[in-house]
Specification:
The chain is α/β, with parallel strands linked by helices. The chain has a single domain, classed as TIM Barrel (Alpha-Beta Barrel). Helices cover 31% and strands 16% of the residues. The chain contains twelve helices and 14 strands. An eight-stranded parallel β-barrel has the order 3-4-5-10-11-12-13-14, surrounded by five helices. A two-stranded antiparallel sheet has the order 1-2. A two-stranded parallel sheet has the order 6-9. The radius of gyration is 19 Å and the shape is globular. The structure holds 2-Phenylacrylic acid. The site of 2-Phenylacrylic acid has 6 residues, from loops.
């Protein structure tokens, strides 16, 4: 295939061999919340830009014990986790690749069985999401959260900064703040969820406050040059009903981001893993405000990605499901080779089956 997608990308803060990015993908294969050998193999298989990703965004990675919401997700806040992630970043760099870690707090999308001492999940609100999570024994309804007290907010922000410092110590090339898919930051942003009366709820400025403080803290800890962010302005994922005015909300988010000069902005267009035209939204307007390299995601084929880059609608394109099933996705796209099919039954948890055993094009041939 020709070939805008396979031109190098250079910006002030990013130098990439081409435009194909591996999207963050929750796989639930970190028993004890620490990355193990299988994860090293999985990321290494996808790390060489000549076959795999120009940039890997890690699976969503909790920033603190209270940030977990799914079984066996790997944290980035203890020395043991930092040492374990270091083996992954070393493996990726040895292949000539780049990797950032996605910093995650699930907020109310969690379950008491996953939290320290059976604690209640925390959120902007005490109203439960009608949503499921994945716990020991399978899928379960999320637990009823409690609303964070105003004086607890500084601790959440400090957890983001601590995790960002851990990320750099672990050898990551940067971080992606997960501000998408109905998790904690979106639970504060959207007026459909945030029902607070304090300085973190009500007005647009107040609902933006957590994100503003997180960006200030993370860029203060590791620099804007190493800070990216993921947004999903109109996804309904995790029972996140749309804001009453998504365009106004995310235009304000864009203005905030634009003041920081971030490494990149990663946007899920439409319904995460679903309809790209789920609700109207002007992504071009958001991009103009963010003033950062623009990474798009959600159901892209190679042809769609090529067109988006060739027509200037995106700088980078993140592929999720296709990268699960095709460790050598970029080579296959470049050659126009057929793609392996995804096995949905092995997405979350389990062993090497459906994790590190998808064949490369060369193996198959
Ligand atoms: C699928 C399953 C569990 C978590 C997201 C981190 O949607 C996730 C996720 C996706 O951002």
């Amino acid at each position: 295939m020709t070939c805008a997608l396979f031109t190098p990308f250079h910006s002030d803060h990013l130098d990439l061999a081409h435009r194909v990015v591996m999207a963050p993908l929750t796989r639930n294969r970190a028993p004890g919340q620490v990355p193990g050998e299988a994860m090293v193999t999985y990321y290494r298989q996808r790390a060489n830009p000549a076959r795999g990703a120009a940039l890997i965004v890690s699976e969503a990675t909790p920033i603190s014990p209270m940030a977990h919401g799914y079984l066996d997700t790997p944290g980035i806040y203890t020395p043991e986790q930092v040492a374990a992630w270091r083996r992954i970043t070393d493996a990726v760099h040895a292949e000539g690749g780049r990797i950032v870690v996605q910093l995650w707090h699930v907020g109310r999308i969690s379950h008491v069985s996953l939290l320290p001492g059976g604690a209640q999940p925390v959120s902007s609100t005490a109203r439960a999401a009608r949503s499921k999570t994945f716990i020991a024994g399978g899928f379960a309804d999320v637990s009823v959260p409690r609303a964070l007290r105003t004086e607890e907010m500084a601790g959440i922000v400090a957890d983001y900064a601590h995790a960002a410092r851990c990320a750099v110590e672990a050898g990551f090339d940067g971080v992606e703040v997960h501000a998408a898919n109905g998790y904690l930051i979106e639970q504060f942003l959207r007026d459909s969820i945030n029902d607070r009366q304090d300085a973190y709820g009500g007005s647009l400025e107040n609902r933006l406050r957590l994100l503003a403080e997180v960006l200030e803290a993370v860029t203060g800890a590791i620099g804007a040059a190493r800070t990216g962010i993921r947004l999903s302005p109109v996804t309904p994922a995790n029972d996140a009903a749309l804001d009453s005015d998504p365009q106004a909300l995310f235009d304000a988010v864009g203005d905030l981001i634009g003041r920081h000069g971030l490494m990149y902005v990663h946007v899920v267009e439409g319904q995460t893993g679903g309809a790209r035209d789920f609700a109207p939204f002007d992504y071009g307007e958001l991009r103009r405000r963010c003033r950062a390299p623009w990474m798009v995601n959600n159901g892209y084929t190679g042809a769609m990605a090529e067109a988006a880059v060739a027509e200037g609608r995106a700088d980078l394109v993140a592929f999720g499901r296709a990268f699960i099933a095709n460790p050598d996705l970029s080579l296959r796209l470049r050659l126009g080779a057929p793609l392996n099919e995804l096995d949905r039954s092995t997405l979350y948890g389990g062993g090497s089956a459906g994790y590190t055993d998808y064949p490369s094009w060369q193996d198959a041939a």
